[in-house]
Amino acid sequence: MASQKHNKVRIIAGRFRGRNITFADSPGLRPTGDRLREMLFSWLQPYIVESRVLDLFAGSGALGFEAVSRGAAQVTMVEKSRKVCAVLRQNAAQLEADDITIICADALDLLSGTVKSNRDGAIGPADIVFVDPPFGERLHQTVIDELSRSQQVVQHSLVVIESDRRADQCTVPAAWLLLREKVAGEVRLQLFQIQ
Hints:
- The chain has 5 helices and 9 strands, in the order ββαβαβαβαβαβββ.
- It is of the alpha/beta class.
- The protein has one domain: Rossmann fold, CATH 3.40.50.150.
- The strands form 2 sheets. The chain has a 7-stranded mixed beta sheet with strand order 5-4-3-6-7-9-8, sandwiched between helices. A two-stranded antiparallel sheet has the order 1-2.
- The longest helix has 15 residues, at 34-48.
- It is globular, with a radius of gyration of 15 Å.
């Protein structure tokens, strides 16, 4: 059996600071870079401790593991690739991160209610939601629309959207207030709060 190629990303701060997590090669999987992740979590610093986080397209797990490292109470990672899920589970086990739940499912199925979820039968509502689908799949608008209709967000929930800066801007509901925005390299990062 051929060995799978694994890549690494470093957790920047918190209880797992300096620890590396691995991720499998998979189409569209692109971990959020260190500088962008550092900036994002400086934005989230007032909100992250004891928060419930939903990472809809977990991929490498860089955002979810960083969130739990920095004090999130519970992180639910959603990832549809079984190969990628297996590596996320290995990383969670190696870090002994019991506050992480990994759901191997399509994020849109979860948002529409087709997939019921974790150990206690519910995921949301989340305090913070990461929306970072593979750029090439052009799912951002569909995910935003489904998320706004779902039970996963409520008033005051924060939504982080990471998208290709060259893509058309997505339309968000009127109740989503843009708190922060940054374009860095090929990436647009936006932080919204639901009013």
